[in-house]
Structures are given as C-alpha cells and as structure tokens.
Amino acid sequence: xxxxxxxxxxxxxxxxxxxxxxxxxxxxxxxxxxxxxxxxxxxxxxxxxxxxxxxxxxxxxxxxxxxxxxxxxxxxxxxxxxxxxxxxxxxxxxxxxxxxxxxxxxxxxxxxxxxxxxxxxxxxxxxxxxxxxxxxxxxxxx
Length: 142
Hints:
By secondary structure, the protein is mainly alpha-helical. It has one domain: VKOR domain (de novo design (two linked rop proteins)), CATH 1.20.1440. The protein is built from 5 helices and 2 strands, in the order ααββααα.
C-alpha cells in the first residue's frame, strides 16, 4: 500500500505538468525558472506524446498495480510484485535519462521534474524485493 500512496504525489505532479503543456493551465510555478525551458524543449515529447502524459499513465499504472497487489485475491501471487518491480525499474531508468537531459543537454532544472524523479526513486526502492526471495529446496552439504 505504501507504493500506491507514494504514486499519488507523482500523479499530481505529472497531471499539473500535462495541463500546463496542453495549454490548460496558464503559468507554471517553478522556483528555478527553468521549467518552461524543459517543457518547451524537444525532449518534452516521447513517441509523439508529452512526457507528462507518459508520467500520468505510469503513475496510474503503478497505483493500480500496487493497490491490486494488496487485495486478498492476489496476496499469494508472485506476478504483481514482480511486475511492479519491473514497472518501477523502467520508470527509474526513464527518469534517470530525463534528469541527464536536464543537467547535461538542456542545462536547465525543472524542480517539478526533480520531485517526480525522487518520487520514482522512492517507488523503486519500495518495490525492490527485500530480502531477495530464496528458492526452497532440499538441503545440500558440501
């Protein structure tokens, strides 16, 4: 359930940036002044859609999968946490790429994007299977 709760701030951030990108929200509030630079760059689109739209979809998927995995019906199933981990790892990788672009290509920091990256990192850390699952089998001696 912690992952579902952690996904909510990211969802709100992505929705805010998407509304701005679509022109439905007049001015973006950003402490650095670089948010507009990032949002107007060629890197703000991925496969023809705004990155913020991908963020909304990703956070919704994370929220729904995390919530689903808490249901008694799926408590013993191994696929929800594994899928959640893969989803979190993909999100973290994409977020790392976007942070690289901000720092080294655009030379502009969007604090909303940084906050989203931190939320993604938290989700990833919560999704990591700690401790790693061990296979149960017959004991062997060496």
